[in-house]
Amino acid sequence: MADESLKEQIVKTGSSADSVEEEAIFVTKEEDKGTKNLGYISATALIVNRIIGTGIFATPSTIVLLCNGSIGLSLILWVVGSLIALAGLYVYMEFGSAIPRNGGEKNYLEYVYKKPKFLITSMYASYIFFLGWASGNSIIFGQYILIAAGKEPTRWSERGIGIAAVSFAFLINGLHVKTGAYLQNTLGIFKIGVVLFIVVTGWVALGGWKKTDNFSHSFEGTSGATAYGVVNALYNIIWSFVGYSNANYALGEVKNPVKTLKYAAPAALVCLAIIYFFVNIAYFAIVPKEQLMHSSTILAADFFDIAFGNTAKKASSVFIALSALGNVLSVIFSQGRIIQALGREGVLPFSKFFASSRPFHTPFVGLLQHWVVCVITIIAPPPGDAYNFILNLISYPLNVVNLAVALGLLYLHIESYRGKVDWRAPIKAPLPVIIFFALATLYLIVAPYVPPNDDQKHMVYNDIPYWAHCVATWAIFGIGALWWLVKAVILPRIGGYSLESTEVVGEDGFWRKEIVKVYPGDSNP
């Protein structure tokens, strides 16, 4: 767990009197001094673009189906999911305010779980290195661009356009950070405009224009909802809010990181939670329940078709495609920085290569690595269970990481109360909020093991066990543990040395850890 000699690492900032960062105590030796291109708007856009992917345009119909057609129960679960996301945000805000560096939860896990040395970093590195987070929305971009063009999507046409999308995101983020941030800001505003338009249309419908009777018996079907259905409905809702911690991955590049976190992150999430709730109201106001539950098209397309006709339905395909592209831009922006941070840690093979910001003063190599994984993920799997399995394998491990982060912060709070550690983050998450988030993430880890009934088995996989992605998650973490065993235990014993780490400032102004071999008689770095 965390090192008790924290006082050696505590520094005070010299902020102005009206700054949130005045007298802020950072547990890192010093903030990153690299180029800081990101302000309030860019940080907010990072969060908005990561959260608003394609989920809000499709997930509400799945939620209603899982809730046995109960509109009221589905709305309650959206509120619960919003509260869990908000609790998670405050956990990450506290860590981010105390450790304002690039890398996100990698830094927080390393800070808390120090023993066995390098184990947590190796397991986290395996999780990050092997998963193609941006691949799913890249394919969705290809699919809906083809629909908008009046073309029938095929396996290779949508994947080809998907590769073009992730390649575009890689190049624009790798060549020029400001241009990538500007495009993310623009798409973020566009996506907010689309969902607000849906909200306003729903309000008009509730006034009597094209209104359904979905709200006449809002809780009809609630008694027939199964434990499996409710569990997976909440799981899908919380996944729709993934991305609330996205700014944490680039805090080293954010101007006034503590102040930006304190205002930009909660504002983005709370506004989106309210908008999401009213988007659901709009869908329920216009799309009949039977169509909600059994339509073969994405819900937003049905919404625009009923409200404005077939032309608007085609336009909605463009909206969904651009929303997916914004998500791809935001995801690859963050993942590249995590790979770079892992390179700076020294845990990856060829660490100096991945740690570099050359040649464009961006994490180009980290972005390239994620691009390669995404392209493989897009091309390799056949349609059907294999593709759904990969998408689930991306979402499930995040809950494991979130639980480790929440338990780590809970530990720091308890030990700080006992006087064992000196933990004074500029932004504090209340203890009940941390406990609530920890229990919620534990629930999300255990819930997918709940077996579906015969009518719901097809909602997971057709031919492989419903728990397959859960087991594969532990295998991925196991690969990291195996790498740690070889790199940090077996080879040092054979070679007669130990591994130690020291922090240095790179040429780009960002801190990194260097792992070095220390032989008997050598002084520690």
TrEMBL record:
Record GO terms (molecular function): L-amino acid transmembrane transporter activity
Coiled coil ranges: none
Location within or outside the cell: Membrane
Taxonomic superkingdom: Eukaryota
Bilayer topology annotation: Multi-pass membrane protein
Keywords for this protein: Membrane, Transmembrane, Transmembrane helix
One GO CC term, this protein: membrane
TM helices/strands, residue ranges: 38-59, 71-92, 124-147, 159-177, 189-209, 229-251, 263-286, 318-339, 360-381, 393-414, 426-446, 466-486
PANTHER family: AMINO ACID TRANSPORTER, HIGH-AFFINITY METHIONINE PERMEASE
Name under which the protein is recorded: Amino acid transporter
